[in-house]
Amino acid sequence: GVVGSRTVATGGGIPYAVVRRDRLAAGSVVPGPAIVEEHTATTILHPGDVGRVGAWGELVITIAQEASGRA
């Protein structure tokens, strides 16, 4: 679940939700803007991006269409 928020230096200074990966169950959906934190990695989901937790615990990310210049 969400444990706080941070401002990410993207030029817009919008707050990003901070989510603990170990609190996400299979089927959980995390809409951007969000920061998914875990012990060995940090995943950034920008506005419009969506993270979904798969059946095996994998984080499947859909990148927003207008964000194609970021990929």
Record the SSE blueprint:
Layout: E1 2-7, E2 15-20, E3 29-31, E4 34-38, E5 41-45, E6 50-53, E7 59-62
Parallel strand pairs: 2-4
Antiparallel strand pairs: 1-2, 3-6, 4-5, 6-7
Description:
With 71 residues, the chain is mostly beta strands. It has no helices and 7 strands. The protein has strands at residues 2-7, 15-20, 29-31, 34-38, 41-45, 50-53, 59-62. The strands form 2 sheets. Strands 1-2-4-5 form a 4-stranded mixed β-sheet, with no helix packed on it. A 3-stranded antiparallel β-sheet has the order 3-6-7, with no helix packed on it. Strand 6 (50-53) and strand 7 (59-62) form a beta hairpin. 13% of the residues are buried. The model has no long low-confidence stretch (mean pLDDT 86).
